[in-house]
Each structure stands twice: as structure tokens, then as C-alpha cells.
């Protein structure tokens, strides 16, 4: 099951007894800062959670499954996530 940004806002607002609109603004600022850093080629590290970085994918050719036509896909950047050791251990042991 997916966790939505709204659910994160609700949880933090409840835990800290803050207004939802203030928490939503803080979450938006955090996500915007992360996106800006990744756009600038910087790595984002959240200790105890993991790190986000960008990677380049080479250009390649593929076949359109609908038409069978060969298509060229240019070089592009993707976001890569590496989980922290503590998160990995928690997932393996089933603890939160």
C-alpha cells in the first residue's frame, strides 16, 4: 500500500500537535530543496534513511511494442536511491 504526502503531513501534524498547513508547507519546502539539489547534480543524504543521487542512462534503441518501429531514446538522467544500513536492517528484521 502506498503512503501519500497527505498521510505524512497528517502523521507529523498529529505527533507534533502542529497545524496541518504548517507541516504541509515544511514538507513542500523539504521536497523542493531536495529536487533543486538533485537538479544541480548534488547528492541528498538523509542519515538513517538513505541517499538520493542522479545517474545518467546511455542513449539506446528500442522497439515500440505497438507499432514495431525502432525508436532512439536519448541520454537521460534518473534518480537513484540507496537505503541506509539501519533502514535495510529494519526491513530485513521486519521492525519499523
Terminal CA distance reads: 16 Å
- In N-to-C order, the SSE pattern is HHEEEEEH
Largest sheet: 3 strands, antiparallel
Radius of gyration: 19 Å
CATH class wording of the largest domain: Few Secondary Structures
Strand order of the largest sheet: 1-2-5
Total beta-strand segments: 5
Looking at CATH, the homologous superfamily of the largest domain is IHF-like DNA-binding proteins
* Average pLDDT figure: 94
Shape: elongated
Low-pLDDT regions: none
Structural class: alpha+beta
Helix content range: 40-55%
Number of domains: 2
Percent range for β-strand residues: 25-35%
Organism: Desulfofustis limnaeus
Family: Belongs to the bacterial histone-like protein family.
Region (Disordered): 49-68
InterPro entries: Hist_DNA-bd, IHF-like_DNA-bd_dom_sf
Describe this structure in words.
With 96 residues, the chain is of the alpha+beta class. The chain folds into two domains: 1-42; 45-96, HU Protein, Chain A. It has helices at residues 5-16, 20-39, 85-93; strands spanning 44-46, 50-57, 60-63, 70-73, 76-83. The strands form two sheets. It has a three-stranded antiparallel sheet with strand order 1-2-5. A two-stranded antiparallel sheet has the order 3-4. Helix 1 (5-16) crosses helix 2. The longest helix is centred in the N-terminal third of the chain and has 20 residues, at 20-39. The protein is elongated and about 55 Å long. The protein starts with a helix and ends with a helix. The relative contact order is 0.11. The model has no long low-confidence stretch (mean pLDDT 94). Belongs to the bacterial histone-like protein family. This is Integration host factor subunit beta. InterPro entries: Hist_DNA-bd, IHF-like_DNA-bd_dom_sf. Residues 49-68 are annotated as: Disordered. Keywords: DNA condensation, DNA-binding.
Amino acid at each position: 500500500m502506498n503512503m501519500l504526502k497527505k498521510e505524512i503531513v497528517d502523521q507529523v501534524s498529529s505527533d507534533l500537535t502542529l497545524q496541518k498547513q504548517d507541516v504541509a508547507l515544511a514538507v513542500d519546502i523539504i521536497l523542493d530543496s531536495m529536487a533543486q539539489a538533485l537538479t544541480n547534480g548534488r547528492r541528498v543524504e538523509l542519515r538513517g534513511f538513505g541517499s538520493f543521487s542522479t545517474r545518467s542512462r546511455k542513449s539506446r534503441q528500442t522497439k515500440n511494442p505497438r507499432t514495431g518501429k525502432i525508436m532512439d531514446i536519448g541520454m537521460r538522467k534518473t534518480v537513484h536511491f540507496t537505503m541506509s544500513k539501519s533502514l535495510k536492517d529494519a526491513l530485513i528484521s521486519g521492525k519499523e
